[in-house]
Amino acid sequence: MRFNHVANRLDVRHFEAVVTMLKTQLGFVELRRTERAIWLRQPGANIDLQFSRSDTAQRDADKLRSQVSFLSETPREALDALATWFEARGLAASVGAYSDREFYLDVPAAFVDFVIEAMRPELADYGEVPELQ
Predict the structure, then answer these.
(1) How far apart are CA 28 and CA 70, in angstroms?
(2) pLDDT of residue 133
């Protein structure tokens, strides 16, 4: 088997707002769409995101441990800008911190089971990586 994508859930009421943010603010392109899901990829990345529409009223209480993660030299500022984007569209958003180098954005009305994380690039430096085949 070969890794293909990661899937998360978005509230059906705010599905298009999150998709628009990913496309306009982070440069994602739409790969495929069905009535209940969308697949997206950020140019230069080698992994896809799938988001499924969800009618779930109960949000995952532990969703801070489930992230869609990005690298940024200025992670706090990058997430603050996204929070401002959501708030300008009437969606409450908050930015928190795991540490002084890794932060998260939650949009509780839209994100069912995850948050968006941004972290400094050195946190993704895993040293010598085994050769991939």
Answers:
(1) 12
(2) 56
Do the domain assignments include residue 70?
A: yes
* Ranges in the chain, pLDDT < 50: none
Report DSSP letters for the chain, one per residue. Answer: ----EEEEEEEGGGHHHHHHHHHHHH--EEEEE-SSEEEEE-TT-S-EEEEEEE---SPPTTGGGSEEEEE-SSHHHHHHHHHHHHHTTT---EEEESSSSEEEEE-TTTBSS-EEEEE-GGGG--SSPPPP-
Q: Which domain holds residue 14?
A: 5-53+61-124
pLDDT of 61: 83
The answer to whether the beta carbons of residues 15 and 27 sit under 8 Å apart is: no
How many domains is the chain partitioned into structurally? 1
- pTM for this structure? 0.89
Quote the pLDDT of residue 59: 81
| 120 domain-assigned | yes
Is residue 132, in this structure, part of any structural domain at all? no
Query: Residue 39 maps to which CATH number?
Result: 3.10.180.10
